[in-house]
Amino acid sequence: MSVYENVEISALQGGPANLPQYEGKAVLLVNVASKCGLTPQYAALEELQSRYAGRGFTVLGVPCNQFMGQEPGSAEEIAEFCSATYGVTFPMTEKIEVNGDDRHPLYERLVTAADAEGHDGDIRWNFEKFVISPKGEVVARFSPQVVPDAPELVATIEAHLPQ
């Protein structure tokens, strides 16, 4: 079953994010935050978006404020920060919860995947990454400390590009 199937989430700027539109694409889904020590990863995420968008790939940013309140802004503030500071062009969803009783259904599906060290379950911090295949399957999970341009992450993306 696709991680996108029967899951509703809004886009950062309102309206549905229409997750089924990502079927057929390789996706790097990342929970993001604007006031985190890992926030500079936005630059490398945007580089991946630029490099692979024409080959059936997208980054999908998912703002979350569950880790020390590091994403406190409104949708407009988040969008402005990402655009002005890092030139972000990739799509972003509304701010959601990725852990706990109010965990979004999308993350209910994602957290069952384990990373290379065997960690599954709760998201550990901002910028935890999931590579999703064009069929909507989670094919890899990477810890927050794995930078977006790490060779193992880039190789995983390239291995799952549809074109």
TrEMBL record:
Regions that span the bilayer: none
Domain of life assignment: Bacteria
PROSITE patterns: GLUTATHIONE_PEROXID_1, GLUTATHIONE_PEROXID_3
Residues forming the catalytic site: C36
UniProt keyword terms in alphabetical order: Oxidoreductase, Peroxidase
Annotated family: Belongs to the glutathione peroxidase family.
Name by which UniProt lists this protein: Glutathione peroxidase
Organism in which the protein naturally occurs: Streptomyces antnestii
